Automatic annotation (TrEMBL):
Domain of life assignment: Bacteria
Segments forming domain D-isomer specific 2-hydroxyacid dehydrogenase catalytic: 51-330
Keyword set includes Electron transport: no
Domain (D-isomer specific 2-hydroxyacid dehydrogenase NAD-binding): residue spans on this chain: 126-303
InterPro entries from the UniProt entry: D-2-hydroxyacid_DH, D-isomer_2_OHA_DH_cat_dom, D-isomer_DH_CS, D-isomer_DH_NAD-bd, NAD(P)-bd_dom_sf
Similarity field: Belongs to the D-isomer specific 2-hydroxyacid dehydrogenase family.
Gene3D superfamilies according to UniProt: NAD(P)-binding Rossmann-like Domain (3.40.50.720)
GO molecular function: NAD binding; oxidoreductase activity, acting on the CH-OH group of donors, NAD or NADP as acceptor
SUPFAM superfamilies for the chain: Formate/glycerate dehydrogenase catalytic domain-like, NAD(P)-binding Rossmann-fold domains
Keywords: NAD, Oxidoreductase
Annotated PROSITE patterns: D_2_HYDROXYACID_DH_3
Protein name, entry field: Oxidoreductase
């Protein structure tokens, strides 16, 4: 029997994972429900974006061969207390809550579920674009306040369409590719900047240098993974290269963007609108200038949060375990391409 710990939470629940594992045999399954998202994640010792349950996890991992989790902290301390552990499956786009060096030193394989939230994140991104272009949150609030803003039909006040718009995507992994596909269905022109993109996947999008993308993009959408190379890659200088009245969207990682510079560009009218699901500090601080900047659409890091994402993560985790059990050669955790989109 292979002893499996399913350390789920209130999104990718243990029951979802156990249901996905029913097609496999020879498993002795133990379950645990962590506190996320009712309790926010954060850094736990040397890993990031994890639930602070090290002590509980150490007790649960006794004799366990495989752990399937989303938010459990697989730190050096935890791995040192789990000598039987052979496989970690993280039900996220990447294993950010795992000390990979410590796992490798112990011969523990680490797998994740890339692309699990690509559909959800892409659809949310386009929804943010539409909400910003058509001023949906502001006009919704005005109706609730008893107003009827027919003055917004004035030519200098009306919104814009996605159809015919030039949209620039920084990063062209699973999420960026799906956003591009949706935008093309809207008859938008799609530009891409991603030095790691496979030209065979462009499918009608045009790969261009970043400076050209910025100068042409009426809508700029970020889909890069946060690395030392990409941190702060869009700041005041880059925002100044956008056409006047451009719209900016970020549903990837907050660290990609200089948010005070964005607030200034919105206040000056350089940017028409901006829509964000991620921020450099989360939760968004009470004194953030984004709260009072005009033309903002803000959501609380929910782009990947759908029922289908959770189910897909559970199924992909079961697939990973099935492959491992079948003795398929291990797929090493590869270096993360700097502009590949991250998963939540």
């Amino acid at each position: 029997m292979t002893r499996v710990l399913v350390a789920g939470d209130h999104f990718v629940t243990p029951s979802l994972v156990v249901d996905a594992l029913r097609r496999l045999t020879g498993l002795d399954i133990v379950t645990h429900t962590g506190p996320w998202p009712h309790t926010p994640f954060g850094p736990v010792n040397e890993v990031d974006e994890a639930s602070d349950i090290e002590d509980e996890l150490i007790d649960l991992l006794s004799g366990v061969d495989v752990v399937i989790t989303q938010m459990a902290p697989l730190t050096e301390r935890v791995l040192a207390a789990a000598p039987a552990l052979k496989l970690i499956v993280v039900t996220r786009g990447g294993p950010v809550n795992v000390n990979l060096a410590a796992a490798e030193a112990r011969g523990i394989e680490v797998r994740s579920t890339p692309g699990r939230n690509a559909v959800a994140a892409a659809e949310h991104t386009v929804a943010l674009m539409l909400a910003a272009l058509r001023m949906i949150p502001a006009t919704h609030a005005s109706v609730l306040a008893g107003q009827w803003r027919s003055d917004l039909y004035a030519l200098d006040a009306v919104g814009s369409e996605l159809g015919g718009t030039t949209a620039g995507l920084v990063g062209y992994g699973a999420i960026g590719r799906r956003v591009a596909r949706i935008l093309r269905a809207f008859d938008a022109t799609v530009l891409v900047h991603d030095p790691y993109a496979d030209p065979a996947t462009l499918d009608g999008a045009d790969a261009v240098p970043l400076d050209e993308l910025l100068s042409r993009s009426q809508v700029l959408s970020l889909h890069a993974r946060l690395t030392a190379e990409t941190r702060g890659m869009i700041g005041a200088k880059e925002l100044a290269q956008l056409p006047p009245g451009a719209v900016l969207v970020n549903s990837a990682r907050g660290g990609l963007l200089d948010y005070p510079a964005v607030a200034e560009a919105l206040a000056s009218g350089r940017l028409r609108a901006a829509a964000f699901d991620v921020f450099d500090v989360e939760p968004l601080p009470a004194d953030s200038p984004l709260r009072t900047a005009p033309g903002t659409v803000l959501t609380p890091h929910l782009a990947g949060a759908t029922v289908q994402t959770a189910r897909r993560a559970a199924e992909q985790a079961a697939d990973a375990l099935a492959t491992w059990l079948a003795g398929t050669a291990a797929q090493p955790v590869r270096p993360v391409a700097a502009l590949e989109p991250g998963g939540r």
